[in-house]
Structure formats: structure tokens, C-alpha cells
Specification:
Elements (H helix, E strand, L loop, with lengths): L5 H10 L7 H11 L3 E4 L3 E4 L5 E3 L4 H6 L1 E2 L6 E5 L5 E14 L2 E14 L5 E13 L4 E5 L2 E4 L2 E4 L6 E3 L20 H5 L11 H10 L1 H8 L3 H5 L5 H6 L1 H9 L7 H13 L7 H4 L4 H18 L2 H19 L6 E4 L2 E5 L3 H11 L14 E8 L2 E9 L5 E5 L9 H28 L1
Parallel strand pairs: 1-5
Antiparallel strand pairs: 1-2, 2-3, 4-5, 6-7, 7-8, 8-9, 9-12, 10-11, 13-14, 14-15, 15-16, 16-17
Helix pairs in contact: 10-12
Amino acid sequence: MKPQTKLHFEVVALNEKIKDVSESIKQWAYKKEFKHYAWKTKHTASCFECGHTWKVETNLISKLFGIECPKCKKTLEAKETRVYRHHAEGFFMVLTTVKNFQVVRIFQMHQNLAKGYEASYSCGEIIRHWIRSDGKITVLARDTCNFFYQTRWSWFGPFQVRGTKDKYYVNTKLVYPQRKILPEIIRNGYYGDTFGYHEAYLFHLILAYPIFETLLKTHQFKLAETFYNHIIEFKEFWSQIKICIRHHYEVKDVSMWLDHLRMLKEFGKDIHNPEFVCPKDLKKEHQKLVDRKQRQIEREELKRLISKIEEADPVYRQDKEKYFGLKFSGGEIEIIVLNSVKEFFLEGKQLHHCVFNSKYYEKPNSLILSARKKGKRIETIEIDLRDFRIMQAHGNCHTVSKDRKQILEIIHANLDQIKKIKKRKVKQAVAA
């Protein structure tokens, strides 16, 4: 789109002054990102880098450590295949500064290999994130097109002002080591770790949110790592976070700690008392509150409880009904979506945790799954429907079940099913 604000016009003007990176940087990226291959048959090998072909015998050493091309002297990974061509692509990032802007430059690379020819490498810049010293982001990027459900970038079109879609936040771990960082970013606590965030968004958080800056400087890294998912809660309980900082208390399980604070507040406890806010054994103290809440619920009249469930159930069904019927399995383990608010009550009662008491069925961006083994509930899992991350998983009394690893593997293998359902419903809503 065309520049519309004073900031847009300033960024577009400065963007014209940026030059392409040097060839040495591109060669560094090619070397780091791509492997070198040799096309291999029983008695011959062909180097995909220089095109040289020579006779070679297969042995255990060559399979484990690769083979060396006698012409270009590169160590090659043998590919015993009939396919004579190979294509790969990758991305790398360069961090630099222009005036009072931190610039995150994203490059796309291609590797084209063919038997009998020298390897061909190409590189083009596709995205530039401009983060001003006050944290405001302007994204400049080239044009894209969809090709078989994949994003394809044009390397030769002009950079234009773009929005904040996910496709402009290309994730890559390959960052050129010679970095230029704004002094304000270093001043605000940046030391190199990204905590799982895209660098551009991390710099935005560091510059725009004093809370995030404080978390970095006080080494509350777990809180910083989950800041994006709990911005509202962190603002609500900022006084409690400062208590933790003053008493050098490190929050390790953020979701449980926030649930603990909510339940303390519900029971009328003094949430400004370090004894409550910074428990030595969070799991044990939180479990006491869960048990107390459970006893309180059980003392209530059954009719009132049924009425409460029946009142909340239609809202939950309307919000999450599109996910009902999802079932993932592996071996003896079966993972299903909780299909009613009553299921939340039974899940919390049998596993002794707060999935019902903390009203997880009212969370619009959470999908709650129940893992069962031979019909017995063993763990409850919360998935964030915004970025499809597993937010938390708890077994009986907030413990880790012995099947945790297999449960997470099953969920990760089937996340695409959840994504497809969400995308399908969004498209239907837009069409309507």
C-alpha cells in the first residue's frame, strides 16, 4: 500500500539508502544453510558442487562421514538416488541500524543442483522491518503470490509498506553474527536471546513495553517468554510481579502461578503478601487451593451446580462445537476435545486440578484436550488457538504423567487438523 503517515514516508525515504549486502555475507549464508551433496551409484559419484564425476567404492566410512570430491575438495553427503536434480531454499537475517531505527532484513536463498553442472546459488532480500526507538514497527516487503498453497516472493519488485500478517515474520535461526543493535534496545535489556520471538517483534516488545524491559533486566525469563500470551494478566498482576522481583522469586510455571493468584484473590487472601505470592512450593500451595475450591463446589447444592453447567454449556458449544469429534490416538493413548462443560467438571474432579474451577471453558482462544489411557483420564492439555502452541499440560494433581512425551508427540503430529478446522470456519464466516 502507499505510505499514509509521517512515519511511513520517513521509512520509505530511508529505505532507498540501504544497499545490498556484500557477496561475502551471501557466501557465509550459503555455507551455513545448505549441505553439499554427491550423486552416488554403486561405483561412481558426481559432485553436485563442481559437476566432477569419478569412480568411488561405497564403504562404511563414506556413509558416516561423507566423501571428498577430488576436484573441489569439498566433503559431500552421498545421495544414493536416481534423481539427478536437487533444489533447496532457506532464509537468513541481517540486523542493522539506520538513524534511530533498528532494521531487521530478511533474505531468501535458493540452491539449485544438477548432475554434471556446477551448483547454482541465488539470494534476494524480501522483507525489512523498521523498528523506531519508541517501538513502532513499519514493515516493508516485496510482492508475494500463492503457488500451490505456498508463499512465493518476488525479488525484483519494489519494497512497499505492508501490514502485520504472519507471512512477513519469516522465522529463521540463521542470523549474521556481525550485528548492529540500537543502543536503546541494549539499554532495555537485550543480550541476544530471543525467547522464541521473531527478532522484529522482540525489539518491538523491548522498546514499547516497560513491563517486558523490567522482566528482562530482572531475569524473569519465563515471564518474558510468555509475555505475548499473558499481556492482560501481567498488567493485572503487575504489583505481584514486582513483589517477586523484590524477593528474588523466579516464576517457573507461569500458567500455574497466574491461576494461583486468581484463586488467592477469589478466596480473599492478601495477594500483596509475599508469603502467598512467592510460595516455596508453588505446586503444593496451589493444590491446596484447588482442593479447597473443589470442596467448596462439592458442598454446594447439586441443583445449583447443574444449573451453572447448563447455563455455560450452550456458550461453550457454540464457541468450540466445530472442534467436537476430534480424536487423536497412538498406541493405548487417545486424545479428545472436551465436548461439554460437564466434561470440564469431571476432568478437574478426577485429575484434581483447576481446569473447571478457573473456567477454562470460557477462554475464547484456548482449546482443551483430554488425554486418556484405556479410558482413564491421565492429562489435560491447553492449546492456544492463536499460535497453536501447547500452553500447559497437567496430569493428576498438576504432576507430569509417565506418558507425557508420547502425548505431546501425538498432539504435535495432529496440530494441522486443528489449524484446518479453524481456517475452514474463518473462511465460512467471511463468505457469509
